[in-house]
Amino acid sequence: MKIIAISDTHIKSGSIQENLPAELQVLLKDADIIIHAGDFVTENVFDELSELSRLEAVHGNLDDQVLRELLPERKVIEVEGMSIGIIHEASLSIQDTAGAWYMAKEMGVDVLVFGHVHKPVIEKSQVLLICPGSPTVPRLSEPSAVEMNIQDGKISGKIITLEGTRCSALEKMRIFGE
Fold it and tell me: Lesser CB count within 10 Å: N end or C end of the chain?
């Protein structure tokens, strides 16, 4: 079972073909499941991703009202004997994932996929924490997604670095004029 996890696409207008990196579009079409951890922004993006593969998703803090009514805040899916939780805001900081760990325990899952922080993370403790970052608006990282493979009750995966604009500390400093 191949799962591609994404989050924080923040596409306000246009299609996913116009806004997502080409290599990600190929991965999404080839996935058995697409997980989106919120902040599509518009229903159009949700609809287009739904046409590519089985889409499991939650709404994010910037999603429009239609998506907030359509999608839950959190969701748990079962995939080949593994319990995967999906939520947008599980951790407010990449430096401290304690909030995400507690959220995973509260949801009773083996794996927690979350978004909001726009920077990729894979961290293993008692549970597996996964933040796919953002393929379109990364923070202090490169555009990214996460590929997960589940086989025989075991999960493996990797962060996929995508083509696109990198957000570095230097660029942030220039943006804010420092």
Answer: C
Count: domains in the chain: 1
Which tens digit of pLDDT belongs to each residue from 54-108?
A: 999 999 999 999 999 999 999 999 999 999 999 999 976 667 888 999 999 999 9
| pLDDT tens sequence across 135-159 | 999 887 899 999 999 998 899 999 9
Residue 100: closest CA among 136, 124, 81: 124
What is the edge-to-edge ordering of all strands in the sheet holding 154-161?
54-57, 33-36, 2-6, 144-151, 154-161
Q: Are 33 and 155 in contact (CB under 8 A)?
A: no
Burial (Cβ within 10 Å: 0-12, 13-18, ≥19) of residue 78: exposed
CA distance linking residue 148 with residue 146, whole number of Å: 6
- Asked if residue 63 lies in contact with residue 89, where contact means CB atoms within 8 angstroms, the answer is no
Supply the pTM of this predicted model: 0.91
Report which of 28, 29, 33, 24 is spatially closest to residue 135, judged by C-alpha positions: 24
Cα separation, 145 vs 131, in Å, equals: 8
The CATH number that applies at residue 57 is: 3.60.21.10
Alpha-carbon span 112 to 22, nearest angstrom: 26
The parent domain of residue 71 ranges over 2-175
Q: How far apart (Å, rounded) are the C-alpha atoms in residues 136 and 115?
A: 13
